[in-house]
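anyone seen this seq b4? input:
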Amino acid sequence: MLNGSKNFITNASHAGLAIVFATTDPTRGHRGIGAFLVETTSPGWEVLRVEEKMGLHGAHTAQLAFTDLYVPRENLLGEETDGFKIAIKTLDGGRIGIAAQAVGIARAALADALEYAQQRRAFGNALVDFQGTQWKLADMATAVEAARLLTLRAATLKDAGRPYTKEASMAKLFASEAAMAIATQAVQLHGGYGYTREFAVERYFRDAKATEIYEGSSEIQRVVIAEHVLREGA
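predicted toks r here
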């Protein structure tokens, strides 16, 4: 039987099947966690509410509750205490996915900012003719490429079956913070229009922020990276 609750679950209000991590042996701490396949039509599964988020409106986020939810033993993934190990592997791969998402947001923000700067005129010139604008675009383009390469590096290591925890955290940290910075600059380059919903940059700004938070915040990524650097060296 599963009892408890969990917040901020992506697509929980639509999913037909979920992987739920729950304590199976309280005496073993994080080593006493199991992973279970749960059908969301099971009695005891309840969506308490769907969050109203600042961004990422294309994916619902919900709060769940479990009340005496029966899970048959054959729905256990691995052994009863393999949950933490499974969760960590899932997180590492998920962080590459969020890094890729952040790269996409950053590239879109750069493309829109470039297009607007080429069309918008001020003091008789296109915005893109001003050196200050050019420098902003140069920094944005460089950050996009660095984030893309870090993400590809982590993905390549994963595909090759090699350790990639540190690289996934590096990619997620850099790409998410780059996306937020680039989206901010895109809004700035649009001026007052960037603060309206007439242009997509305000959406990129809102969506980028989530990438710094979910699948492990930027602070957590720095903890993971530091642990590896201290253990392995530079």
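Residues 83-119 form the longest helix (37 residues). The chain has a mean pLDDT of 94. kinda curious what u guys think
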